[in-house]
Structure formats: structure tokens, C-alpha cells
Write a structure and sequence with these properties.
Length: 175
């Protein structure tokens, strides 16, 4: 899987980097160790690391440092209520932590969910990582997230997935 993942990563980057903003690319931990950071790292690149729990976090730390040194930023994807994921974040020290929908679903209706989410955000702050809330689907969830200080989010409430070129066209005011 790592070799296929690395090949897909290379194919995405062959399309070039954006003029503004960031290019966020998902890659597994296994695929990441098969790539040369110096050849691909760029200040506009955010690597969304998936399946990082299947490798020992200390094994990845050195690999990630090479990518950071060459300008890339690191995000860990799909962080949910599993304490092992937060423990991995302590070792990996990502720039972004993407909070899975399982953490925020119902946070507008259940105080226990809101409290757990607030604690996960404290871990993000402690690590100096920006939190990105995934799967925002309801206005009440968005309000709670804003109240808790979350600045970044994605989900159907905020916009449906679309091709990069379409998003660029809309942002340029052409549609």
C-alpha cells in the first residue's frame, strides 16, 4: 500500500502547487516513508497523514522533521475519541489536527460531547496545532465550534466537495 500511496502523492504534486493557499494531500504513514522530502516539500504543501496509528509515532518523527525542514506542514487526519490518536499527536507535533466528525456530532445538544470536544481542543492548543473540524453539517454544531475557538472547518454545511479548478474559479469571482 505504501508504494501505491507514494505514487498517487507524486501524481497529485505533478499538477503543480497553488498560487495562493495550500495544497492538502492525504498520504498514509507507510507511503510517507517512501518519499524524499527534499524533492517534494514546499511551503504551500500540507501533508494530511492518515493511518499514522499503525506505525510507532517515534518512527515517523524523524521523517516528518525532514518534511518540515524543507517547508511542508503536517496535519494528522481523522482524530476522534480514541486516546491513542491524541497520544500520537503528542509525538508527531502536527501543525494541524483534523477533528473527526465523531468528536463534534451532537456537540450542540449534548454537554458531554461539548466537554470532550473542548478537551480535545485543549490538546491542540497545548501542541500549538490548529484544529480543523471535519464533517460540520448543522448550524448548531458550527456555533459551538466557533464558541470554542475553532477557526477552520469543512463539511456539507460549509460547502460540498468540488474540483480544485471549480473552487479557484469561484474564488476568483468568475462564478
Amino acid at each position: 500500500m505504501g508504494e501505491l500511496d507514494a505514487a498517487c502523492f507524486k501524481a497529485v504534486l505533478a499538477g503543480g502547487m497553488p498560487g495562493e493557499g495550500f495544497l492538502c494531500v492525504n498520504i498514509t504513514a507507510a507511503g510517507m516513508v517512501n518519499l524524499d522530502a527534499a524533492a517534494y516539500a514546499n511551503p504551500s504543501l500540507v501533508i494530511e497523514l492518515t493511518e499514522y496509528g499503525q506505525r510507532h509515532p517515534r518512527e515517523l518523527t524523524g521523517v516528518l522533521e525532514g518534511w518540515r525542514r524543507d517547508g511542508a506542514r503536517i496535519a494528522i487526519d481523522d482524530v476522534g475519541p480514541d486516546i491513542g490518536q491524541l497520544r500520537a499527536a503528542l509525538h508527531l507535533r502536527p501543525d494541524f489536527i483534523k477533528l473527526d466528525r465523531t468528536l463534534l456530532a451532537g456537540c450542540d445538544r449534548h454537554s458531554s460531547k461539548r466537554l470532550f470536544l473542548a478537551q480535545a481542543l485543549e490538546v491542540c492548543r497545548y501542541l500549538g496545532a490548529e484544529a480543523i473540524a471535519e464533517g460540520i453539517e448543522k448550524p448548531g454544531e458550527l456555533k459551538v465550534l466557533k464558541d470554542l475557538g475553532v477557526e477552520y472547518g469543512q463539511g456539507y454545511l460549509l460547502g460540498r466537495p468540488q474540483p480544485g479548478w471549480e473552487k479557484a474559479r469561484i474564488m476568483a469571482g468568475e462564478g
